[in-house]
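Journal club side-thread
Mid-discussion, someone asked how the predicted structure for our own chain would compare to the paper's figures. Pasting it here so we can look after the session.
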Amino acid sequence: MDLASVTPNRDAHAVFYRSDLYVIMCKQFEGTLKYGRSYYDFEEGSLMFTAPGQVVLSDPELKVTEGWGLFFHPDLLAGTPLGSSIHDYTFFQYDSNEALHVSEEENAILLDCLAKIQRECSQNIDHLTATLIADNLQLLLNYCMRYYKRQFYTREKTSNDVVKSFEGLLLSYLSGEALRESGIPDVKYFASQLHLSPNYLSDLLSRFTGKTTQEHIHLQLTEKAKVLLAGSDRTVGEIAFLLGFEHLSHFSKFFKNRTGLSPKDYRSVQ
């Protein structure tokens, strides 16, 4: 779909909607968008991705000057390699402020993929039509994955700031009373504190540290457990409670999976 040729027919107020389709849009806006506490400049064009069932906010005050949209149903992927790997493209779960900003050259490559898809859709359908559409769609998504990786590194200072902020939040949470009172934090907690989507935070951390958000949480939790087991007279049950585990068995399983020893055995060899 050529977005510049579309005239929205809706009331002059923000509209929430939900789609059953995967949506990829490359938009060029006039002005800036505000998400959360920050403003984002979309004048050079940005790609935004939406998975089926997600709620999207459409703001009629923003005028799309040019761009394209690609919409496809999950059934299109049935029986194709992309059908089994679509969830690997985690950017479908990113927030709008985590859009992919592409260069003119990158957009031209994506448009070439779109042209091949459009060509398949417009000619006579045969037994390879759906396969070729899915193959070209996967090629487009792989380019997007490459460009997101590039974007993480071209915004290295911002990314490093996120990593440092996350590490500070994690250490603060584990060293205070929150762990005992609220339990083990999940990925969504830190993502909300940093005003990011959970998938974007995990992907960013993976690029710069080699570990996802959950891996960071479990690593620091294990280190804290080691310190308490080796340096205190508390029982294993008390330590499990301090670390936010509701049941001793859960703590024992968690600790053994990461150290190869039960908490009791670890304490005995220290």
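Post-session note: Confidence is low (pLDDT under 50) at residues 33-43.
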